[in-house]
């Protein structure tokens, strides 16, 4: 089996294929998606920082000038929302947006959220353990980061059930060659979410609160589209990775019971364990960039107008960087994984995600004396954002909390 992002067996375990790519074809052209696959850590890391590549090319050329077909007209509402956020734009627009939004993500501000994150995690885990377990993803992994980012934004409690479905539908557009139905679903979700946020922002302009949307409405430099795009990005990026690291991470620990026992016995390992779980089975398997000027990687010329697919999952298992890379080591000290990206698009919410993950894993380790799989989980069909459908567990309370 070679690289095949639509093959369920490959999605379930792509790492043998990655090993072969790193050894035999570190840079290769993949005809089905028209992309150049880049498999080694050094190359992925360098290209993430290379300004000859970009998340977009529309700041330097039209679709026609770049040799690309124009996007279907029905997708316009989706791209209007997405390209108003900082992830899919380049300097100088990216620089301005990141500067404005980063005011809300200073290290001090993010660390001040820890007590609230701990309280939410504790409440969710206590309810989960009290009922004897269930789907860990639906009952703990999803509600925690969604609640945190919703509280930051100031989304009313009665509306928060809308956020996760909107986000999941929008992210469907990021998969490789999405089906027409997925494209239309993503467009509809983007329109609904944008309409909701515009209405909420109008309320906050009239009567500001202590939330992020209120703060954003007071920034004259921010257009309405940019406010909406920023909030959509903060929701999507603010919880998608955390949800999937939680699910993938616990599944990784169940497959490595010695490391789970080690973590149970030494809670000081939580920070390194979180980093290792992100490395060992990262949710974001691929990050795409457009080539704005001709580049050469390992003697392979990649011309302007090409798209490169940076294989994060492969880079994070590269033996040139990680000792014994296929071994899960919750105490791994030297761990330069790239699950949060690198360069100007490095994940703004990384510090908050680390807090959420540490508090979530810590609460489960503290409150659950045992956690056991009821059935082996299955993977969602998506490859780019890779996570479990569900994680059904039996949980019993620890002696300390019983």
Structural description of this entry:
Strand 1 and strand 2 form a beta hairpin. The chain is globular. The protein has 17 helices and ten strands. By secondary structure, the chain is α+β, with helices and mostly antiparallel strands.
Structural class: alpha+beta
Structural shape: globular
Strand neighbour order, sheet with most strands: 1-2-8-5-3
What is the total tally of β strands? 10
Number of helices in the DSSP assignment: 17
How far apart lie the N and C ends?
48 Å
- Share in β-strands: 5-15%
Order of helices and strands: HHEEHEHHHHEHHHHHHHHEEEEHHEE
Arithmetic mean pLDDT: 92
How is the topology of this model organized?
Elements: H1 8-12, H2 15-24, E1 27-30, E2 35-38, H3 41-49, E3 53-54, H4 76-82, H5 93-101, H6 107-112, H7 114-130, E4 133-135, H8 136-141, H9 143-153, H10 163-171, H11 180-206, H12 212-217, H13 224-255, H14 257-265, H15 270-280, E5 286-291, E6 295-297, E7 300-302, E8 307-311, H16 312-315, H17 350-367, E9 368-373, E10 392-397
Parallel strand pairs: 2-8
Antiparallel strand pairs: 1-2, 3-5, 4-10, 5-8, 6-7, 9-10
Helix pairs in contact: 4-11, 7-9, 7-17, 9-13, 10-11, 10-13, 11-13, 13-15, 13-17, 15-17
Which key terms come to mind for this protein?
10% strand, 17 helices, globular, 402 residues, alpha+beta, five-stranded mixed β-sheet, 49% helix
